[in-house]
Design a protein that fits this description.
Helix content is about 55%, strand content about 10%. The chain has 4 helices and 3 strands. Helix 2 packs antiparallel against helix 3 (about 95-120).
Length: about 170
């Protein structure tokens, strides 16, 4: 068992949480792949749809139109980030919010890497529409995303919060 510093969860706890995110992400994507045709949209509410979209790029379909090299580029970035995050988890075991944040990012990164390796694209299926977004996004539709993307976003926000709190404690 990994050593546990006073007040911090073990590395195994954080890795299990990341694995849980990967499993939930892959489970939901498997459901979408099984129940939806490519491009299919099923309205749930006036502002939320379930869809099946394939994203060969990164966030907001960045580099989606590239010739295919981006698949391996993003796989490499995901693997490198995962190794770095595990190293950070080992180095900062008592920083709970920090560990939570990078664990969410780890789980999301691995979930999307699995998609790229299995399919050559990331399966996105959550689509929100808000009229206020119309000047930015066509029809007010925010780009579709998935559980992994959500974990990365919450992890990034938690990382920012952790830094703000760390700076405030230092004053």
């Amino acid at each position: 068992m990994a050593p546990r510093a006073s007040g911090g969860a073990s590395l195994w706890f954080w890795l299990a949480l990341a694995l849980g995110i990967v499993v939930l992400d892959q489970f939901t994507k498997t459901l979408i792949l099984g129940w939806f045709e490519f491009g299919e949209v099923r309205p749930v509410t006036s502002f939320f749809n379930l869809v099946r979209v394939h994203n060969t790029g990164a966030a907001f379909s960045f580099l989606a139109g590239a010739s295919g090299w981006q698949r391996w580029f993003f796989v490499g970035i995901g693997i490198a980030a995962s190794v770095f995050i595990v190293w950070m988890l080992k180095k900062h075991p008592t920083q709970t919010l920090f560990c939570f944040a990078v664990t969410l990012i780890l789980g999301g990164a691995v979930g999307n890497v699995v998609d790229r390796l299995l399919h050559g694209y990331v399966v996105d299926f959550l689509q929100f529409r808000f009229a206020i977004l119309e000047p930015i996004f066509r029809g007010g539709y925010f780009p579709s995303f998935n559980v992994a993307d959500s974990a990365i976003t919450v992890g990034a926000a938690s990382l920012i919060l952790d830094e703000i709190l760390r700076v405030r404690r230092g004053k």
